[in-house]
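Narrative of activities, Objective 1.

The group set out to show that a structural description can be obtained from nothing but a protein's sequence at a throughput compatible with the screening campaign. Below is one input-output pair from the validation batch, recorded exactly as produced.
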Amino acid sequence: MAASDGPLKGVKVLDLSRILAGPTCTQLLGDLGASVIKIENPATGGDDTRQWGPPYVEDSDGNRSDLSAYFMSANRNKKSVTIDITTPEGQAEIKRLASHADILIENFKPGGLAKYGLDYKSLADDLPGLVYCSISGYGQTGPNASKPGYDLMAQGYGGIMSLTGDPEGAPMKVGVGIADVMCGMYAAVGILAALRHRDLTGEGQQIDLALVDTQVAWLINEGVNYLTSGSVPERRGNGHPNIVPYEVYETADGHVILAVGNDSQFKRFCAFIEQDALADDPRFATNPARLDNRDALNAVLRPALKNHSTTTVISELESRKVPVGPVQTLDQVFSTEQVTARKMQVAMQAQPGEVQLIGNPLNLSRTPVTYRDAPPVFGADTDRVLSAENPFED
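Output recorded for this entry:
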């Protein structure tokens, strides 16, 4: 298949978003074959994340580019076009590009584009088939709609920080911008659903998506635990709210993850640590009992596991079909044969030189993802796109 083919070949995306949630969505659409034009502000140097470094890509002479690692993580398969939307000329250009597009995605504050005539209401009459996705911190409605939204604030407001971290420590954010990333994933799903509706009926629509809403949605079992019981969940560090033992344990030379999902696995685990009686002890014989007696069980398991090396624990439990795994640093992750086999690290040729990126995890048997364009330097495609009769043409 041609390099530009994919399940979304022919779908045209006008991307007015920046930072991480919107760019995550549009990179995913681009990987699937959509043509994406990224609009950047010429007065500010473009997407804020271009300055979120180091590290940056350097050219062969050691000169720093505007390709920060952060920016590159969410901006491949896009064209960078600089347009000042505060000017009448810029607004007219956005409207022209939108007239060619299937999708427009933006993450301005609610109402922020109305003064430029670029909000959904202003465009919908002339572009009735446009799928218009708006991402904001708290959504287009509600008492907090006007408040700015950032990943950290969403994690705090939406509750995930109250569940994350050491039980005796402070609330802790997840180590990456997971509220942004998950919002981008929900945005992609919503956009594809709206495209399906548009293709069947000719009707476009606005998608109103909030960082906080999506973060609340992926509270998943802990959220429903609360709604069912009325009890506010507590921080358990690496412990699981519904399964024991299911957490990180120290070994003689490091750490392992133990994930005992049922009672038969627990029995086989007890045989490994030579504590067979635990499996028949009424305090530990079933998962509900182990939940009630978590501390007493861990008082036995922790010293037992510290008697063995990480390698021994993993190999012995794997042979017994007990779920177990390592806690790897990123140098270990990207050196594994598994990551290589799954093509989760990809090399691309950017303007300053070769860059290393994280691969897309989607494996479609007939329409695989493609890596066509490396993350663009600021404004690299402005002249070509704005002078083209068909601006989305690759």
